[in-house]
Amino acid sequence: MLAVTLYPILQALYDSLFRYRLTAPGDREMVWFGNYAVILGDSVFWSALLVTVVITVITVLIELVLGFALALVMHRALTQLRGLLRTAILVPYGIITVVSAFAWFYMFDITSGFVNSWFSWVPGIDADLNWFASQGTSLFVIIASEVWKTTPFISLLLLAGLAQVSGDLEEAAAVDGASWWQRLWRVVIPNMKAAIMVAVLFRALDAFRIFDNVFIMTNGANGTEVLSLLAYRTSIGRLEIGMGSAISVLLFLCVILICFIAIKLFKVDLSSARGGS
């Protein structure tokens, strides 16, 4: 872990302090936090950050709701059907992200896609609709592809949390006259808060680092550039290692901030959740 994780982070942090281009390796110059000042003063960075946050928030919220619904179905299903349901739900998650992104791209493409013809009865959709010509529709396709692929991951994590909720608690609440909705909000969800936090945290971290879908579908066009793609363009496209490293460090700090917010928001005692002292 130290070799493949900590070292690249430290190397990126070190490189971010230099004005360093691969096309002119001899002109490497220490600028300390100059790269960060340039990035934070650039509207392109803040636009990419906003798009990344929007994608992260929307996908995590939708996946949490759909994942919880799927987890309830699998949890309540007959024993004979549980294996079949879990296998069917896991199919999208088992597909490689690049393959999934290309599939969604060709589905919505104006020339090769079938979405426009199949859903022409929906208001606003016709044969001439180019989904990747504007920011709103492009983000819709990107978010939809993310939700389709990663909701199974959320559902399995929440299913594990549902398995930890004592059936006696639900039966006691039912005896006291609690409705199904009341049992869900006052018994089930509070007792699986640790699983919900883990699901939200893992998925939010993954969604915030989204790259494949955006790169394949729009390549950052029409206001869809995200932080990962911006770092890639800067480091690989323009060969500005110092500036690209600085963007990567800022992305890493945003990930740390997400972890902090999630832990403070859910206020879960993980030691007690796993049965520790």
Automatic annotation (TrEMBL):
Please list every transmembrane segment annotated in the UniProt record, as residue ranges. Answer: 44-72, 84-107, 184-202, 244-266
Any coiled-coil regions, as ranges: none
Q: Which Gene3D superfamilies match?
A: MetI-like
Query: Where does this protein chiefly localize?
Result: membrane
A GO BP term here is: transmembrane transport
SUPFAM superfamilies per the UniProt record, alphabetical: MetI-like (SSF161098)
Q: Where in the cell is it found?
A: Cell membrane
Q: How does it sit in the membrane?
A: Multi-pass membrane protein
Q: Which GO terms describe its cellular component?
A: plasma membrane
Taxonomy, superkingdom = Bacteria
**Is Transport there in the keyword field?**
yes
Domain annotation ABC transmembrane type-1: ranges: 49-262
Query: What keywords is this UniProt entry annotated with?
Result: Cell membrane, Membrane, Transmembrane, Transmembrane helix, Transport
**Keyword Transport among UniProt keywords:** yes
Similarity field: Belongs to the binding-protein-dependent transport system permease family.
* Name of this chain's protein: Sugar ABC transporter permease
The species is: Nakamurella leprariae
